[in-house]
Amino acid sequence: MKYMLLIFGNEKAYGEMDTWPETDLAAMRDFMGELNDDLIASGEFVQGVGLAHPGLGRTVRATASYLLAARRTSSLPERAHLQGQAAQLPG
Q: Which of 16, 45, 51, 58 would staple 40 via disulfide (CB 3.0–4.6 Å)?
């Protein structure tokens, strides 16, 4: 069985990390490295992706019918167009 592991961080939390002692930062990096190694060794690791700084992120919401239409689209230019429209949605 595979799981998705998400680590949430907001702008405040990232700002506070600037005040962490180097030993705490090293401990966090070591823990995350060991976790990745364990998941890889067990065959459970699929992908690791670092996202942008929380201050740069945004939430995009779309209706179910819009998402279904985008999912059924096989044309790459049309799919790119739909993704561009979704990126302009408020939220």
A: 45
Please write the tens of the pLDDT for every residue from 45-89: 888 877 777 777 776 676 777 766 666 655 666 666 666 766 666
- For residue 61, give both structure tokens: 């919401």
Q: Name residues whose C-beta falls within 8 Å of residue 51's C-beta, 6 or more positions apart in sequence.
A: 57
Max Cα-Cα span within the chain: 50
Best CA proximity match to 7, nearest among 42, 57, 51, 59: 51
Contact 3, 46 (CB under 8 A): no
Handedness of CA 30, 31, 32, 38 (dihedral sign): positive
Per the CB < 8 A criterion, the answer to whether 31 and 23 are in contact is: no
With 0.90 as the threshold, say if the pTM is over it.
Answer: no
Q: How many angstroms separate the CA atoms of 91 and 85, rounded?
A: 13
